[in-house]
Specification:
Spore Coat Polysaccharide Biosynthesis Protein SpsA, Chain A, globular, nine-stranded mixed beta sheet
Length: 305
């Protein structure tokens, strides 16, 4: 494979049956490079024997050296990517029927990022809609005001996006190798640095909601772990610092939205994070974080009384 038009990068950890579901929605074509990067799954050494789909033409099956980060897996995929367009999809998601027509449409576009719409379903019952459709409304709003800022700065996940590989490599944009939110910084940096983007209101990805996934705390109501809070706040703080360095005039307050829940759930862990990480590295944001915690308690008091 010399110069494919598309590279699809799929990080994977221990859900091979769902990975196969994803792969079955991708046509086997010379112009589509597929890179599956396993993040140290148990038994992954036998996957290619057990799952013949992983040995199909134009697919590369790679491994990370250290597990625990979809961002590291995606960076490994970037090291092997050859396509003009980069597409990132999770192993438990898949593409819509007729995705080839979208690829044909995208092939010769010249923008740095293409944004497509998506659908959300339950992984266990694909006929049941999910709730993670928070960004779909951006497409409807865009038809009214043509404001690109929502897509550039607030459309945090990777689904529905095609990235021009030359643009990504030129700007040396990589993923944060964290346990959670590894896509946030990548998306924000790409949105900030892109000279031009295209917004197409057609579904391209089907996003699934699955118990046990990295994003499950966002739709199940389950309390995130200390590790998740710490990772998400760390990435958000780095992202807002990047925003300030590039003088981006938009509110990016994700780190503040995590402050009160993190503090109320794990006060000791949050205090260690505040004095061990925030004060030394991000002192300019410490007052806003304290204020957001106070506002969180005020909202709680109002609900009680």
């Amino acid at each position: 494979m010399c110069n494919p038009d598309f590279t699809i990068i799929i990080p994977h950890y221990d859900i091979p049956d769902l990975l196969m579901r994803c792969l079955r929605t991708i046509p086997v074509r010379e112009d589509i490079q597929v890179i599956v990067v396993d993040d140290c799954s148990p038994g992954a050494d036998h996957y290619q024997t057990e799952y013949p789909e992983l040995s199909r033409p134009y697919l590369e099956f790679c491994h990370t050296s250290v597990g625990g980060s979809a961002g590291r897996a995606r960076n490994t995929g970037l090291d092997h990517a050859k396509g003009k367009w980069l597409i990132f999809i999770d192993a438990d998601d898949f593409f819509v029927e007729g995705m080839t027509s979208i690829l044909e449409e995208a092939r010769n576009k010249t923008e740095d990022i293409l944004f497509y719409n998506y659908r959300v379903v339950k992984s266990s019952d694909l006929a049941t809609p999910g709730v993670r459709n928070w960004y779909s409304k951006y497409f409807e709003e865009y038809t009214k005001d043509k404001n690109e800022e929502r897509f550039r700065y607030k459309f945090e996940p990777l689904y529905g996006k095609l990235f021009n590989r030359q643009f990504v490599e030129k700007n040396q944009i990589r993923f944060d190798e964290t346990s959670h939110s590894n896509d946030v910084g990548f998306s924000f940096k790409c949105g900030t640095l892109a000279e031009s983007i295209a917004i197409i209101d057609k579904p391209f990805f089907v996003i699934t909601e699955r118990e046990g996934s990295l994003a499950s705390s966002q739709f199940t109501g389950k309390k995130p772990s200390i590790q998740e809070y710490t990772a998400r706040m760390s990435v958000a703080l780095e992202t807002v610092r990047f925003k300030d360095l590039h003088h981006v005039c938009t509110d990016y307050a994700t780190y503040k939205s995590y402050s009160y829940p993190f503090f109320s759930a794990y006060p000791i862990a949050f205090s260690r994070f505040f004095f061990g990480v925030i004060i030394p590295r991000y002192p300019q944001y410490a007052p806003r974080i304290v204020l957001s915690i106070c506002q969180g308690y005020l909202r709680r008091l109002r609900r009680l009384f």
